[in-house]
């Protein structure tokens, strides 16, 4: 599990954060987005998701066959990608990544978080 927390922190978080910042928050807050950063971030994130796809072809969750913090840590930024930015294809076009997203995004506690006015 720790390995996948490290992957999230060092490889998933940065490109997904920059995509959310330059697509979603630029629009909402009215500052200019940088198309170059968006393109580079999407390419980097795509490579990370390809690695996830390979891993998830062997186990249901990133850390193994059980839901863990390694999966949970992906919820907030992925929620932006699939719900607010038109980037859901990055998740949905990868069979195993899509299955993971469907599993973790439907956990009742996550659905409750979304009901409390999260900016998604």
TrEMBL record:
Pfam families for this protein: GST_C
InterPro entries (UniProt xref): Glutathione-S-Trfase_C-like, Glutathione-S-Trfase_C_sf, GST_C, GST_Phi_C
Top-level EC class: transferase
Sequence ranges assigned to domain GST C-terminal in this UniProt record: 1-120
GO biological process: glutathione metabolic process; toxin catabolic process
One cellular component term from this protein's GO annotations in UniProt: cytosol
Database matches in PROSITE patterns: GST_CTER
Cellular compartments annotated: Cytoplasm, Cytosol
E.C. number: 2.5.1.18
UniProt keyword terms in alphabetical order: Cytoplasm, Detoxification, Membrane, Transferase, Transmembrane, Transmembrane helix
SUPFAM superfamilies assigned to the protein according to its UniProt record, in alphabetical order: GST C-terminal domain-like (SSF47616)
Molecular functions (GO terms): glutathione binding; glutathione transferase activity
Membrane-spanning intervals of the chain: 12-31
PANTHER family: GLUTATHIONE S-TRANSFERASE F9, GLUTATHIONE S-TRANSFERASE RHO
Family: Belongs to the GST superfamily. Phi family.
Protein name: glutathione transferase
Taxonomic source organism: Malus baccata (Siberian crab apple)
